[in-house]
Each structure stands twice: as C-alpha cells, then as structure tokens.
C-alpha cells in the first residue's frame, strides 16, 4: 500500500481513514496486556511516592535523630528522587541502545534490591542508600514504560493507553496508603511498608521475560521480521500494511541522517528544541505545581492542619490518594477525546483555585486558636487537598507523560524522553527537598500561594508552547514540529528543490 503526503498537508493520512476500522481500548487484549505489564513500572513509581509519606511518621518514632531534623526527613524522602534523576538520564540511553524490554528488566532488579536494603536498614543512613537504589529503578522505569506503551499502541488510543501508566502510578499511591494503614499496628511498621515494594518489581520482571521488545525499536534496529511478528498481533492485515509503510518511511529517513544521537544533538535542530521545550516544560510544571508535595507530605499536611493522630492522618490521606486514582481514570477517558492541550489547561485552572483554597485554610488556621483550628480550617484544608487532586489528576497527571511519549522523532525518543523525565525528577527533588523548610520559613499558607503562582505561569506556558497531538501518528507529530519551526511552507520548498510535486512512500 502506498501512502501519499501532499505538500502543505498536515502529514500522513490517518490509518483509521484508510482501514475504516474503529480501535478501542479493549479491542485488542494483547495490547492491553503489554500496557498493563509495562505499567507495573508506574505502580512502583506510585507506591514509592505514597509509601514514604506514611512510613516517615514511624521512621521518626524509631530514629530520634530523624524526628528532630527537618533536613534529614527531606533527605529520606528526596534521596529516591535523586536516584531517579540518574536513573532517568541513564534510562534514556539504555532504552535507545539496548531496548525497552532490557531497560525494564534492569530497573526491576535495582528496585527489588533497594527495597530489601530499606527494609533491613539499621540506621537512617543505610535507609537513605536503599532509597537511592529504589530511585535508580523508578527513574529508569519512568522513561521506559510510557515509551514502550506508546510504541505498541494504535495512534487513536495512544494517549489513553500511555495514561494507563499514570493510572498505575496513582493506583500505586492508593495501594501504598492501604498498606500503610494495614501495618500501623505491626511491629517494624515502616520496614514492612517499604519492604513489600519489591514484590511488584519481581512480578514485572517475570512477566516481561515473556513479552516482546517494542516493535518500533525492533524495526529501527533492522530486526524487521521480529517487529512485523509483534505488529501482526496488534493490527489487522490492512492496518498492518499501513503501519509497516510508516515504519519503512521513518527508517529510511533515519538512515539518511546520523544513525545515533547524543544529548547535545537535541539542541542543534530547531524543531527538536521546540519539542523538547514543550515536553520538558510540562514535566517541570507537573512538579512545581505541587503534586508530589501533596503526595509525599499529605499525612504531614493533614497533621499541620490540626489532625495529630498518625492513623487519622493516614486515613484522611487515603481519601486524597483515592481521588487521585479516580481522577486519573477520568483523564484516560478524556485525553483522546478532549485533547491533551485542553485537558492540561482545564486542569491548571482548577489547580490554581484549589491551591488558593489550601493557602486560605492555613492562613485561617494561623489566625485561630488551637481548639478552633480542627473544627474549621482543618477540614477546610482537607477540602483543598481533595479539590487539588480532583483537578490535577485528570490533566496535569497524565498529559506530560502522554505528550512526551509521542512528540519526539524515533531516533530522539529515548534520549529526549530520558532528558525530559530527568527534568521531572530534578523538579521533583527541588520540591521534595525544600517543602518543609520553605513552609517553616514563610509559613504553609504562603508556600501554597507560591505554588498557585507557579500554576498560573504553567497555564500560559501550555497556551504558548504545547500543541495538540490528539490522534496524530508519530510521523504527523514530527511534521507538526517542522511546520512550527520553519513555517507551513517548509515542505513545499523542500520538494521544489528536489524537483518533486508529491512525496510518495
């Protein structure tokens, strides 16, 4: 089958127009199985994010030196993030050089070892080392899972399937709060909380042994027969031919250029710079608008609001985590219908409002007596937390990961995905390492007001720099960036220089 792309067009014809067959999330169990297995990496990410918030309450009880030191508390939380920065940076290279499957297996081994080290830690410093190992694993997984899912997904449902990884993240956070509650009365409370995190890593390792490599990666590495064998399980015969033609075109284009890229190459091409600005910017704003401040410290925030019981703080935080998971399901439903850009803008508008509510709750608390705080401003803060999650989770939760899995050309996808995930983790580290200190210095109310200001900036960033990629093939997205970089006439000029009037592939 031949696909014709006319000068000035928006790109290749949509495969659904060619085949006329509607694709849904549940129309192919094989794709769904790949998605859910890869998404266990997101579960690890989410579980670690959520479990430390509850475990920290009991770590402080066991180690007085931690209880009396905000910096040490922040370090226990954020060391996993520091490890994730390294893991994400190396994971991008690992994905391109050795494939998505091997990167996942390596991440699972590192995470499992880290969970054992944490559970057995005799002091806070060995615990911090275990957190570093776990971070290396989740950093690599945060790059690998979205790319693996995206490259095995039909374009019409790619956003929703990639967002399933985010659902696994939020589901992992919810699971972590359930585990936290389950172990509140068990000796060695926090050790169980942290130790059981190795179980999903072992499960994913075993399942991945039976799954294929990403078909797109295989094809780009000239392992075409293996790639086609995988693709034939994803698409019907008519659609399969279309997808093979698209991959052939992409491979031919990559062959004409350099066979490999490094980190500096990202900044040499105007269209790649624009794509990376949009992708990395979304990842940074996801963190700087406060999501992991809420998830890492929600029990602590609840206690700040006047609810001093550890068990009650965990129970109220479970409501927040539940809202996060429910909101992500809504995001999966909307992202391929509503669009990535519009969903992000709506989400950010609500985030600003809810952060103002949170700020107001803590401002009200500071002006009340202790007895009044719990009855009014404390519940006001809980409402603010729930509203924040309700607005954030359907939009700014899944959108940055979905966009970053689809906006880069194939040869840049691992490198750029790794770099943008590194931006996410660096931003995450800054927020996690500074929240308690900033709150102590300027007050919790002012801290949430600062986050609201950042969310306003994020809203205008999305308006200016993030295009809509809903339903577009990878090739159409690549063309979109070229048009943004060089204008809509770039293709016509290129074709005229070559003496062509059409671009047949």
Automatic annotation (TrEMBL):
Presence of the UniProt keyword Transmembrane helix in the record: yes
Q: Where is the Major facilitator superfamily (MFS) profile domain?
A: 34-470
Q: Which Gene3D superfamilies match?
A: MFS general substrate transporter like domains
Task: Name the PROSITE patterns for this protein.
Answer: MFS, SUGAR_TRANSPORT_1, SUGAR_TRANSPORT_2
What keywords is this UniProt entry annotated with? Membrane, Transmembrane, Transmembrane helix, Transport
Residues annotated as transmembrane = 30-59, 71-93, 105-122, 128-149, 161-183, 189-211, 274-297, 312-335, 347-366, 378-403, 423-442, 448-466
The way it spans or sits in the membrane comes to: Multi-pass membrane protein
Task: Give start-end of the signal peptide.
Answer: none
CDD domains the record matches: MFS_HMIT_like
Please name the InterPro entries in this protein's record: MFS_dom, MFS_sugar_transport-like, MFS_trans_sf, Myo-inositol_Transporter, Sugar/inositol_transpt, Sugar_transporter_CS
Name any Gene Ontology BP term.
Answer: polyol transmembrane transport
**What GO cellular component entries does it have?**
membrane
Subcellular localization(s) per the UniProt record:
Membrane
Molecular-function GO terms, alphabetical:
transmembrane transporter activity
Keyword presence, Repeat: no
Q: Which family does it belong to?
A: Belongs to the major facilitator superfamily. Sugar transporter (TC 2.A.1.1) family.
Protein's UniProt name: Major facilitator superfamily (MFS) profile domain-containing protein
